[in-house]
Amino acid sequence: MSPDTRAFRARYRAGIHPLYNAWLHGGFVLAYGAACLVFFISGLENVKPLEWLVVPLALMFFSWGEYAIHKNLGHKKTRLGAMFYKRHTGDHHSFFVAGQMTYESTRDWRVILFPAWLIVLFSLGLFVAWWLLSFLNANTAALFSTTMLAGYLSYEVFHACEHLPASHPISRLPWIRHMRRLHELHHRRDLMQTHNFNLVFPLMDWLRGSLYWEPLEQESSMTRMQHEVEITRNPDQVLAYASTATRWPEWHPSSLRVDGPSGPLPAGSHFEEDIHAGGRAGHLSWDVTEHSSGRHWCASAHGTHGLELLLTYECEKIDTGTRFVRTLEYRFSGRLMRLANLLVMRRKIDRESVESMKQLKEMAERVIEQTLIRQRDPA
């Protein structure tokens, strides 16, 4: 994560009211919206086939409204939309940037969800529309208001899903995955004012020529996981310990045995590893490709089941010691293993990676401290 994004997130989180409750926020929006939907739907009676055409027409109208408001008020500073512009471009697009789209705690929903009062204001407009349309046709009024409110709730739900971790089961649902990618592209600085303004269904983007797609290599060919932990030791010490592959079994639950040189491994080193990851045993042959002391270490591997793997360690100096970031990218060549990874293995590997960060912190702090003590008192 870039220092600018991390600094903004820290400032934004510090400004959230201590009593803010994300579950109350999201729960109110859904409960209030559901109550209004029940009210509108209760007015339906003997809907005729022609009356059902209101639904696709209202969906098109909602898609146009979503597009127009997002583009013209969310990304253009105007007197009318000053508050929305600040909240959207100023806050949301500073908190989430391309490549850093995942929220880290439920309190981060504050910068994802609309203010809770907005659905009340939106529903008041719908009640007025329902009242006026009911003079013409009660079913038309109910279908229009129901569809528009369902669109609002869908926007809230889809937007939240588009900021879930890539490893979350919901993120792997085909349409959610597709819209997550479009939304991430929208968060690129060079695209956010011109492309991908629809978040639920990109109808208006397609019609207006602002739909932009660019495949993500990691999504199309590799599974990518990134985890970080703060360790109260300096970056040189932390990376030296983490890049000593023979010590991996001490802290990574998937590593069973490592055969290779001892000590931190420089670029060009080779080693072998027996693993049990994602519920399957295997063997990896590793080659270290990059090593910058205290900053960066990278290695690639080939293994059983057609496994290809890229592992990167990055260290950043912080006030309390080191922020350690581990990025794992892997893929299988066979279709059966790719399917097993999609359905089962990636969740297990992600849990193992999370656990490895906890173990790394504990072991690195302990081992480095023991080493320093021995150096101070060789006897």
TrEMBL record:
The lineage of its organism: Bacteria, Pseudomonadati, Pseudomonadota, Gammaproteobacteria, Pseudomonadales. This is SRPBCC family protein. Residues 56-209 form the Fatty acid hydroxylase domain. InterPro entries: Fatty_acid_hydroxylase, Polyketide_cyclase/dehydratase, START-like_dom_sf. The chain crosses the membrane at residues 20-44, 50-69, 111-133. It comes from the Bacteria. The keyword Zinc does not apply. Keywords: Membrane, Transmembrane, Transmembrane helix. It comes from Metapseudomonas boanensis.
